[in-house]
Amino acid sequence: MLQRLSQWSFLVGLLLAFDAVCADYGFRIIRAELVPSGTNFVLNADIDYRFSESALEALRHGVPLTLAVRLKIKRQRHYWLNETILSEIHKFRILYHPLGRSFQIIHAGGNTESFASLTALLEAMGAIRGWFMLPADRIVEGNSYEASLSVDLDIESLPLPLRPIAYVSPSWYLGSSWYRWRVAD
Amino acid sequence: MARRRLKPPLSLTILVLFSALLASLHLMSTATQDASQLGKMYSWLVLINSLGSVLLLGLVGANVYWLLKQLRRKAAGSNLTLRMVFLFTLLSLAPATIVFYYSMQFLQQSIDSWFDVRVDQAMEDALQLGQAALDERMRAVLKQTEQMAEGLEGSPEGLVPIRLAELRSHAEDGELTVFSKQGRIMGFIGSQTGRIIPDFPETGVLLQVKQGKSYVGLEPDVGNGLQIRAVVSIAGDDAQYLQGIYPVPLRVADLAKTVEAAYVHYKELTFLRGSLKLTFSLTLSLVLLLSLLAAMWSAFLSIRRIVAPVRYLAQGTRAVAQGNYEKRLPVKRKDELGFLVESFNAMTQKIAQARDEAQHSRQEVERQRAYLETVLANLSSGVLSFDESMRLLTANQAANAILHAELDKSVGATIGELTEAQPHLADLMQIVGNRLEKENSVWREEIPFLGPKGRQELLCRGTPLFGSDGESQGAVVVFDDVTALIQAQRQAAWSEVAQRLAHEIKNPLTPIQLSAERLKHKLSKNLETAEAEVLDRATRTIVQQVEAMKTMVNAFSEYAKPSIIQLQRIDIDALIEEVVALYPPQSGLEFELDLEPTLPPIYADPIRIRQVLHNMIKNAQEAMAPGVSGKMGIQTRLIEENRHHYVEIELHDSGPGIPPEQADRIFEPYVTTKSKGTGLGLAIVKKIVEEHGGSIRLVSGRGEGARFIIRVPIATETAAVRGLAMEV
What we know:
Chain A is an alpha+beta fold. Helix content of chain A is about 25%, strand content about 45%.
């Protein structure tokens, strides 16, 4: 019984993985780094956004999509659990304006950016420059730090009727895996 | 265990659980209907309600499993539970399903009715209208910007801001920027309300312009309005670009935004139509599922509570059927079923009481029976009882002993079968059977019985038994072995006769003897020698024979006359030694004495005991072959039997012994194995010993000499005297 169940779950898992590969959607972080900017460190990253057809269709039909970029920086400790020195989420909304046939990014702070095409929007979204300020004094020489970055589509921000479907449909599970890198002193 | 766990705070738990689920359902339904604050909790609510459904499903499943187990075990009340659960489920399922079906229909239709092709078209048209209006404006803006760009053609770099200001004065209020290919700002005029820093176009637009295509686009501005952005290239050696950003008039922008907002909302709704239906259906299904499961669970619980007394009753009945009357069922309710259980308890209690009483009386009867049996067993009379068809019912131990048969093993046998099993009872049983069949009243008869131990005289009394209605219930036969009694009677009679006879014989003997002597005395002088000799011989013979006859008659009368014994304390060892001393070795007997020195004194008549010893020694002497010297051993010892103490005197000789065929009768008068003697010696010994309350027996047969054992009880003086007094 248990064996059969595990066989089934393996098959389902395989199918899902296959589906995800074939569907060719999902977010991928190509590069990320913390660069000094004045007295702070800021994040520069390149992200490859590939939305699924259902997400794009919803966007074109006026459904705003919310994306969340998460950054965590941890000080590595050998003797104890790692210390989190930064854990922030930056959320931004993208939406379509049918009147001007343009796309718009609305950041959490209220800043907006407009784009004439989806490609331009994706490109602009993909190039993260100077986000998340981390005071430079938080990074102490001699310690080692690990940063991790992820981005995903926030299902909870979708319109209510769409949520149940989004929770059970793989094409709505858009998100990158955690991208980790060591922060150089 | 599960039952107990679900019991006491059950109603409260159910109430709380249901309330929580209901509240959650209500919240979810509210959240579904309007996207208020609850919208954020929607996913959690769905999750909670799903978990609630799973929990209820688990509970229902557990109950179904329990029911199936009960059914498989054929437990009491399980069929009733199944039926009621089935009925409850059907009753709740049917209306719920109908309501669900029509609700779904209604839901689908009402959502579909929101959308209309005409409204759809109107929305599209409105948007296009807005776009057309704005397009015209955009074209105008583009044209104006292109004209400005023409105006800027050939302007040296330093003059660009001035030229820009000139051009601006002819045009409407807007933000103008001239920048190079590298993005260097060469001239900038901000709008009256606008920014200080120019707003650069996005890279896609730049790319388009660099390819020589002008760009114009509508976009939301920083505030709440709209702006038109136009980017054109300025003809010249260096690649320069002019960007103009013009705000759309507020009124137009407001209108356009309203149209757009309505359009977007409508478009979104249309897009979400399927999802909406799904969400509503999900909510509705969850509501239905939860209420159905809750109904089923409560059905199970209440049915189990209803059926519980029935189950108890069935268990109780089963227990009673198995004979367990101590079973008491718990009474937990005040309704009719509770009353039923109470009545059951009262009933079993009464049954238990009745059983106890029956058991008690049975024990009493058993005790009585055992008592009667003991009495019967200890009776010296034999008792046989027969049923109405003359089958043996009971036989006591005395009956077995008297008849030398094991009658208690033949209980249930008819008289005929008894005869077959014990042939020596044939005559007796025939007589008894005949009497029992014929007689209707008490009868008694002396019946001779020839048993394995010789002839016995039985005095039988038969009593037919009748029930209260005069019906025959069999009979009881009581019999006694009166052989000894009859013998004693005969002996007494014989003794009387013997004494009289002895007296009558003895009386003429003295005159005969005297007459014979007188004849001899008178006639012997007058007769010839030869004749005198004859006379002398004849008279001597007469005198001798008369003397012999006298001795014999004396002995006879001695034996026959009732003796009077004078009891006194005697030392039996001393007495034996005294008597033995009278027989010197010349007497032909050599004695070997083995006397127990610590013998207690006995109470006896010394003269009679001496006579016993003399008789025994004489008996031994006479048993010896003439001229042969024999041996005689005398032993005394103290023995205990049945808590009575006896002195035993064992006497044995080296004579030829007693042949077995005479051993039984050796103590009877005139029974002897010897040529000499009167034949009364041992009879007298037996008489004397028995007069002292003792016994004598022969223990060895022919070939090894005769061996007699005399046993005399050791008793206190008073007891001995009393015993003798009773005997006399």
